[in-house]
Design a protein that fits this description.
alpha/beta, Rossmann fold, three-stranded antiparallel sheet, 41% helix, globular
Length: 235
């Protein structure tokens, strides 16, 4: 099992490299049909984002715009404690938002201050939006491939620390998506930008009657905010 996991991790690293070097033009039409419908509805909800929240999001807008203007790679690493829920949602939605708004040279990643595994409820919430998820590994920390459309390189999802070798070690923006990680990591080595952008943890509703509702609510909030960010990047 150890050798098998090692091979899959190497394959994941290769996919991430290909993903970073990809020169595929992002087009809405290439998204999965159900996902496209979901994405198209998000812009009508930008007015639901509080003004004070937009101030933080606009800091991320400025960083991405600066990287784009300088013709530099736009690498974003979303950091939480266990890299199991919010950080993966943010990784996925920021990448899809870059496709939707045709912002090129964007690669997104996630990590934690510790590693666990991707939470099944978070995966279910993502899948309900039209994202296709597949895993060919049975282990305590499975590797998942998330597809937004057949012309896009699948996103690789597995729990890892943010310093994992599959993540960039320099020249990246670090976005702290939970309060705990934001407090425990005042400095992220190698990052040229750091932003505290915490989201409430849907874990609080695990095994309750509100579980699915709260995971889908958090998934949509993160999607809405990442789409707002990329909608502000001028072509």
């Amino acid at each position: 099992m150890k050798n098998s996991s090692s091979k899959i991790l190497k394959a994941a690293s290769v996919l991430l490299c290909l993903f970073s070097l990809s020169n595929v033009k992002a087009q809405k039409a290439n998204l999965n049909s159900d996902l496209l419908r979901y994405c198209t509805s998000l812009s009508s909800e930008f007015n639901q984002i509080p003004a004070e929240r937009k101030e933080y999001l606009n800091e991320l807008v400025s960083y991405i715009a600066e990287q784009k203007k300088a013709q530099k790679a736009i690498n974003l690493v979303f950091v939480c404690t266990s890299n199991s829920r919010r950080s993966h949602m943010a990784q996925v939605w920021s990448q899809i938002a870059s496709y939707y708004y045709e912002v090129k040279n964007v690669s997104t990643f996630s990590g934690g201050t510790e590693k666990t595994k991707v939470n099944k409820n978070a995966l279910s919430a993502l899948e309900k939006t039209g994202i296709v998820l597949q895993s060919h590994q049975q282990s305590e920390n499975p590797i998942w491939f998330a597809s937004a459309g057949f012309k896009f390189t699948p996103m690789v999802l597995f729990s890892k620390v943010y310093t994992d070798s599959t993540n960039p070690s320099q020249n990246f923006g670090a976005v702290m998506v939970c309060a705990e990680a934001n407090e425990s990591c005042p400095i992220v080595p190698g990052a040229d930008f750091r932003l505290g952008l915490p989201y409430q943890d849907p874990k609080a509703f695990d095994n309750t009657s509100q579980q699915n509702e709260k995971y889908e609510e958090r998934c949509r909030q993160i999607a809405r905010e990442m789409f707002y960010v990329f909608s502000q990047i001028k072509k």
